[in-house]
Request: fold
Amino acid sequence: MYSLFAVLIIITCVLLILIIMVQNPKGGGLSSAFGGGNQIMGARKTSDFLEKTTWVLAITLVSLALLSNFAIPRNSAQETIIDNVRDSDIEESNEMFDINIEDELNNSDNNN
Reply:
């Protein structure tokens, strides 16, 4: 499922890049190639179409990014690694503080 979201996000990004590259911020670009005036696919209609397409693709991209969060595989492997590290730290700390006072006193008496 996550792969599907990843592919859809990539396709949306490519389409968004293409639509943005077609536009010209000064009113030129693809919209000026269709001529002017009140033609059916005139400059005004083309820029409206490109602007609406840009907004739709941007909203689609944000929606897919948010929805893909729910499709991310949640493996318990990461949790077990953390638990293993915690367990080994606890064992090391127990060994470090595992001191028998009687043995230590006997050892110090034997050394003196």
About this structure: The radius of gyration is 33 Å. Confidence is low (pLDDT under 50) at residues 36-41. Helices lie at 2-22, 30-33, 43-71, 77-96, 101-111. The chain has two domains: 1-74, 77-112.
